[in-house]
Amino acid sequence: MRWKIPRAFSRVCEPAVFVLTLAITLVPAARARADDDADKILKSMSNYLASQNNISFAFDTDIEVITSDIQKIQFASSGQLALTRPDKIRVSRTGGYADVLLVDDGKTATILGKHVNAYAQIGMPGTIDQFVNRLRDELGIPLPGADLLLADPHEALTADVVEGKHIGRGVIDNVECEHLAFRNSDTDWQLWVETGDRPIPHKFVITSKTMAAAPQYTLRIHDWKTEASLAPDTFSFSPPEGAKKIELKDLHGIDEVPPGVIVKGGKQ
Question: At 116, which CATH number?
Answer without folding.
Answer: 2.50.20.10
